[in-house]
Amino acid sequence: MGWLFLKVLFVGVTFLGCLYPLVDFCGSGDTRGQKPNFVIILADDMGWGDLGANWAETKDTANLDDMAAEGMRFVDFHAAASTCSPSRASLLTGRLGLRNGVTHNFAVTSVGGLPLNETTLAEVLRQAGYVTGMIGKWHLGHHGSYHPSFRGFDYYFGIPYSHDMGCTDTPGYNHPPCPACPRGDGDGPSSRGNECCLWFAHRTHERDCYTDVALPLYENLNIVEQPVNLSGLAQKYAEKATQFIQHASASGRPFLLYVALAHMHVPLSGTRLSADRRGRRPYGAALREMDRLVGQIKDKVDRTARENTFLWFTGDNGPWAQKCELAGSVGPFTGSWQTHQGGSAAKQTTWEGGHRVPALAYWPGTVPINVTSTALLSVLDIFPTVVALAGASLPQDRHFDGLDASSVLFGWSQTGHRVLFHPNSGAAGEYGALQTVRLEQHKAFYVTGGAKACDGKVGPSRLHEPPLIFNLEEDVAEAEPLEEGSAEYERILPEVRQVLADVLVDIAGDKTSRVDYTRDPSVTPCCDPHRKACRCHTT
C-alpha cells in the first residue's frame, strides 16, 4: 500500500497551490460554459415512497420536493440491482453485473473489487478534462488499486463500504441493534454496548455485528477517523461536497461530483433523532437529515454554477421490507404476490419495492421544470447519459445496458427502455442471474422468494416455469399475476422468452469481467492495529 500512497502524495504536492487536498483544480484555459458540470447524488436504501413528491403521506423531504418542482421527476426509474455493490458498479460502468462481474456485495475483508479492466464514469470524464470527486460510500473494493483514488476520482472522502460493516461509538438506530466499539486496551464495550451485547446475544442469527474493527473514514488514501462518528457524518459530507463544488467552479474546469449518501441505510444516525418534538419515528428524522444535506449541496450549486450544472438524484435500491420497524416506504408497492406468500417485497428482491427508486433531474434552463416523466429508465442510464452530455466517448470494446436519456431529460421524448432486466441480488436464484424481465408494462418472474426478512427468516424460493407475469399498468402492487393461458399471457410470454434469450447471447459475446471475491483478514482497513478496534483520529 505504500507505493499507492506515495503516488497520490506526489500528485497532491504538485498541486498544493490549488487549495484543495490532492486535487488538480488548476486547469489550462477556461473551459467554463463549454462543458456542463455533473453532481450525482445516490441515496442508500431509500424507498420510492420516501420522496414526498411521490407519496403524499411523506412529509420529510421538503428540499427534494422543491427540486422535483424545479426540475423533472421520474416515476418509473429503477436501480440496476437490489443491493449495494452491484447497483453502484452498474452506475459507474453502465453495465449489468453479468458484464462487469459485480453480482453481490464486497466484504470488509474482500481482496478484490470492481474489476480493473472496467472503465468507470470518473475515468472517462477525467480523460475529457473534468476534475472528479467522490464523497461517501464506495463499496466497490478498498484494497490496493480498487480504492476510488485509483478508479478515476481525483478526490475521495468517505467510507469504504456500508456503515453497518464496522463498529462505532454511536451505533445509531437499528433492529436489532449492534454494540458500540470496545474502548481501551483493557476495557470492554461501553455500558451502552454491553446492554446491546446482552440483548443481541440471543439474536445473532438475525444480523451480523462487527465488534473487532471500527468503521473507517478516508480522505483520499488516508484513514482520518476510526471509528467514524456517525452523528456528524452527514454534515462532514455536506461540507466536503460544497468545498469541492466551490473550488472546482472557481478553477474554470468542469467537474463531476459523485455523492453516495449513508442515508437511508441502517443504522440510522442518532443526530437529533430522539429529540424530535413532533414525535416522529427515527426514520422520518433521518429522512429530514438527508434532505437537509441534499439541500445544502443544491444551494451551493445554485450559488456557484446554477445554469451549467446537472444534478441527478436517485437511489441504489429499495428499503428493507415494509414489515421492518425502521423500513422506508415503497409507496404503492406493498401488496406484492410474494408478500401474500409470506415473503419480502423490498430490498434484495426484484419486486418493484426492491428496485423502483425515487429519481430527480435538476438543471435550470435545460431540464424543464415541474415535469413528471413516465419513461422507463434505470441507474444504468447515468453513465451513457453523462458521457454524452460531456461530449466524451463511450469505451468501444464493450456493450452497455444503459441508454442515453438526454432526449427525455430535455423534454423531447417520453421513450426510455422497452426492456429492462432485474438481476438476482441476494434472494432466490444465482447472483446476477437475469430471471426477472420488464417488457414495457409487463413484468415476468422466473424465480421469487429467498430473501431475508427483518426477523432473520428467509422465505422459501420458488421457481416459475412458465414465469409469473404481471401487468404493472393495471397492477403496480404486483398483487395478482396474469392467468396462465389467458390471451394477454399467451401474447406476452413469447416476447419475454425472446428478449431474455437475446440478451444472454449478447452477454456471451461481450467483453465481460470476473471479480475476485476472495477474502483475507489482512486487507481489513485499520489505522492502528495495536489499539482495540483500530482506533485513531488524525483530523
Helix content: 25-40%
Q: Based on CA inertia axes, which overall geometry fits? A: globular
The main β sheet shows up as: 11 strands, mixed
Strand order across the biggest sheet? 11-2-10-9-1-8-4-5-6-7-17
**Could you tell me the mean pLDDT?**
86
Structural category is alpha/beta
> Can you write the helix and strand succession as a string?
HEHEEHHHEEHEEHEHEHHEEEHHEEEEHE
Number of strands: 17
The tally of helices reads 13
In terms of DSSP E residues, the strand content is 15-25%
Question: How does the SSE layout of this entry go?
Answer:
Layout: H1 2-14, E1 37-43, H2 62-69, E2 72-74, E3 77-78, H3 84-93, H4 97-100, H5 121-127, E4 131-136, E5 155-158, H6 191-200, E6 217-219, E7 222-226, H7 230-251, E8 255-260, H8 282-304, E9 309-315, H9 337-340, H10 352-355, E10 359-362, E11 371-373, E12 377-378, H11 382-389, H12 406-409, E13 419-423, E14 434-439, E15 442-448, E16 462-471, H13 487-508, E17 536-537
Parallel strand pairs: 1-8, 1-9, 2-11, 3-12, 4-5, 4-8
Antiparallel strand pairs: 2-10, 5-6, 6-7, 7-17, 9-10, 13-14, 14-15, 15-16
Helix pairs in contact: 7-8
